[in-house]
């Protein structure tokens, strides 16, 4: 269990800007760039990394004119939910492939073969440089 001393401190505004600038290319149709979109989706939705990496095209749904991510499974029972898609993520939705995973180039890894394993490791290495 983490103690308050070990807990991650929130990023400053400058550090957050640096994180969002890690990858400037949003990607191409059918292949959104993970390091560009993952921090933005997490920031605007509150979703966990593995939830985002596990999203498929069928998980983008719409009701009453509102697009949302349908989270069919997760870490806990309360993880099953719908998350409205922020208007700032419209460009992401337009880049998503019409079927399959939203980030098709992510390779599962680690002992539990999560789609977020390698990108999480890479993101952690990149943010260590930002944090100092």
TrEMBL record:
Native organism: Ancylobacter polymorphus
One Gene Ontology biological process: DNA recombination
Protein name, UniProt field: Tyr recombinase domain-containing protein
Keywords assigned by UniProt, alphabetized: DNA recombination
Stretches assigned to the Tyr recombinase domain: 6-132
InterPro entries associated with the record: DNA_brk_join_enz, Integrase-like_cat_sf, Integrase_catalytic
Domain of life where this protein originates: Bacteria
An example molecular function term from Gene Ontology annotations: DNA binding
């Amino acid at each position: 269990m983490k103690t308050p001393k070990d807990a991650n401190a929130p990023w400053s505004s400058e550090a957050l800007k640096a994180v969002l600038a890690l990858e400037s290319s949003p990607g191409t149709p059918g292949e959104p760039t993970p390091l560009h979109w993952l921090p933005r989706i997490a920031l605007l939705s509150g979703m966990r990394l593995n939830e985002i990496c596990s999203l498929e095209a069928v998980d983008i749904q719409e009701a009453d004119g509102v697009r949302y991510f349908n989270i069919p499974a997760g870490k806990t029972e309360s993880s099953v939910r719908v998350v409205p898609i922020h208007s700032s993520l419209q460009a992401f939705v337009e880049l998503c492939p019409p079927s399959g995973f939203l980030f098709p180039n992510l390779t599962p890894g680690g002992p539990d073969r999560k789609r977020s394993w390698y990108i999480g490791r890479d993101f952690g290495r990149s943010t260590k440089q930002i944090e100092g």
